[in-house]
Amino acid sequence: MRLMQSTTYLLQRRTFRLFTTIKPKRSKNTTYNLSRRENSGSSESINTKAKQLGTSQVVFPFISDIDKVSQTDETLRLIFDDEDFWNYFTSRSRTLAALEYSTSLSARKFTGLFRNPELATPQGFHLEAEKALRRVKLLVNRITNANTEKELRKVVKNMDRLSDTLCSVIDTAEFIRSSHPDPKFAQAANWAYGYLCSYMNSLNTNTELYQVLKRVLSTPSITSQFSSEEFQVANTFFHDFEKSGIHLPSSDREQFVHLSDKIITLGRQFTQILLQKRINRINVDVSLLEGLHPGLNKDTKGNITSLSTKAWEAQMILKSVKDEGVRKKMYIAANSATKEQIILLEDLLKTRAELAKLVGMESYSHAFLIDKMVKNPEHVQTFLRTLSDHHRPKALADLRLLQEAKQLYTESETLPTVYAWDRYFYAERIKFSSLTQPVTSISPYFSVGSVIQGLSRLFSRLYGISFEPAEIMPGEVWHDDVRKLEVIDEQEGKVGTIYCDLFSRNGKLQNAAHYTVRCSRRVDDDDGVGDIPSGVDITEMGELSNSDHGVKVNGRAGRYQLPVIVLTCDFMKPKGRQYPSLLNWVEVETLFHEMGHAMHSMIGRTNFHNVSGTRCPTDFVELPSILMEHFVYSPKVLSLFARHYETRETVPLDLIKSHVKARLQFSAMETQSQIFMALLDQLYHSKLATDSKSFDTTAILYNLQDTVELFPSVPGTAWQVQFGHLFGYGAGYYSYLFGRALAGKIWKEIFEKDPLNREAGQLFREEVLKWGGSRDPWLCIGKALNDDKIIVGDSKSVSIVGEWVDFL
């Protein structure tokens, strides 16, 4: 069972940068004309009302006769880009919040995480988990005792409610356990996650629930009343039961729960390896460090320098140090692993294989892929091999450039072998010797606030959706860096909330990610009263979790629980009081990518939790996010927001072209690496993992590096323990390449001619985004492209997608 699965508002604080942060030159009495979307240097009197709100530094006067849309649009940029502006609004927001608290019943409780009062303290996760479990047990009892047709008609709805009740705690805990800087919160969230996941696993093997659902699906008088959404939800539950070994004897079902719990525990430990990666140091003679980046941290004693293997520092050494021996030493040290780390990963993979074997599957990959677009590992291999055959010549051309650069540098008579520690060094030499290499940084045109503002403008053009800064109450977020955006549809009103946690900090996962905290679903027809058996005194049961009251959405019947999501990135923020933070090209792509997931969550609003937003097959869920990356390469889109942080001048077209060309250099080599990782993921989750004695992840890694990758394997390394997606995307890493092929084709056919066209945006919204997971993905893609061959969704369709290599 897929149980997991008017007024301008103001925000919380800070910003970020990449390599260079330039402090704006501004006098203390700068004012902001929000209606003109630009700064004014004139001095004006301090607003009296703002003084009363407690502002002690620079104050910006309210402007009463401005267009609200323009004000919101410019405020959106400034809360990310201007420290003084942000401090002012933070002060105002907190004062207004205090006034609200002092005049309402909510004054008795401190607002907790995501405005859940229970989560004001770590202990709240225990309370929330117990409340959810009490409600879920009532729902299980109600479903398994459904005998009348009226109650049987509600079974699918009640199963979806059950799923949402668990996910309301599990999804929140999943995010908080990885991102909250307070260990007490992280530990409490981790407990709640494990506690409820374990119970969820037991529900996956509950034969009574399965039999009731089977009875419902075999009763025509009931199924004839189902909407297409309800059918999809019912079939999803049914197939999940079967994937969980519902047909097995009782002892085997207990083993299924045990193995599922073990996988969760091992996965958590594997994730901790990434968070607490062992940092090695290498000792090098100072005389061998010619070319070393001057800003690199190093510890020198006499003639020996000690260098850290931290990711950024290792990368700079591999890019800049001329001595090949030093680069090799750093590469091996940075990619090594302990025996215990390798054993942990192999235990995770073997346990997955054991689980798959228990339910009658040849491998974990077979079990995982059965409900995905590709359906089975053979289709994945068809896609990857077709892709590799079409793509490899381009990758070899990139490799040839590196070989020629190394031959020239080393004065070799023949083309030399390029090793993994050579890759970035010679790539940098080629880039900086190229006449097309940009000499001017584009980062000053990509302040964080400008990019967020540009995304809002882009979504407004395509979908009629925009962002508004939202007030953050005390205790609502887990860190002061977090900002909150409300998502507004021009027809439906508010459709969801996005929390932006974009800045690097110690202990935070480095990968960018999209977390679902709450999915959309209809709630006015929940019938929670019917969960309580007759004759039961509810006061003796303990507190129960209750459904969100929901909101009325314009143009839709009923009331809806709105989606809440978190976007996390690892952008470097400026030190001290330096603002704004400036992004490089790759970071802009990253932000666009994650916002693609966010839009899928906001627009994919269905009546049921289990098919809303991004709750769809993993090889389909990447499509909207990867599609967004294509928009970054459009000068027409960049003109919406790419303006110099000081002068507000639009980015020059020639600068865009030079950076696009530089960004695409060696892209074929990068795609080849993605193909390698997707194949590695498939091998690790193949039947090879069922042989506990001979299964050797390092040997498999080396063999694939020597046959598919462009660079030979390096003895002494074990990069696989750094492949974090092996847990979250186990057997599904191919999805990224699959999504790139789909997105490239859709960009070419629908958006390339005019990326700001509302009709194109509405086509993608109506045929893809709005369905969430409630419609066959092949049908969504086929309808969008008007291609019947794609709609079929068979091995031929998969092969066709593999041939879309030119669209990657």
From TrEMBL:
GO terms, molecular function: metal ion binding; metalloendopeptidase activity
Main enzyme class: hydrolase
Domain Peptidase M3A/M3B catalytic: 318-788
Catalysed conversion reaction: Release of an N-terminal octapeptide as second stage of processing of some proteins imported into the mitochondrion
Keyword Ligase: no
Annotated compartments: Mitochondrion matrix
Database matches in SUPFAM superfamilies: Metalloproteases ('zincins'), catalytic domain (SSF55486)
Annotated stretches, region: Disordered: 29-48
The keyword Aminoacyl-tRNA synthetase is annotated on this UniProt entry: no
Keywords: Coiled coil, Hydrolase, Metal-binding, Metalloprotease, Mitochondrion, Protease, Transit peptide, Zinc
Highest taxon in the source lineage: Eukaryota
Obligatory cofactor(s): Zn(2+)
InterPro entries recorded: M3A_MIP, MetalloPept_cat_dom_sf, Neurolysin/TOP_dom2, Pept_M3A_M3B, Pept_M3A_M3B_dom
Similarity remark: Belongs to the peptidase M3 family.
Function: Cleaves proteins, imported into the mitochondrion, to their mature size. While most mitochondrial precursor proteins are processed to the mature form in one step by mitochondrial processing peptidase (MPP), the sequential cleavage by MIP of an octapeptide after initial processing by MPP is a required step for a subgroup of nuclear-encoded precursor proteins destined for the matrix or the inner membrane.
Protein name (record): mitochondrial intermediate peptidase
Record lineage: Eukaryota, Fungi, Fungi incertae sedis, Mucoromycota, Glomeromycotina
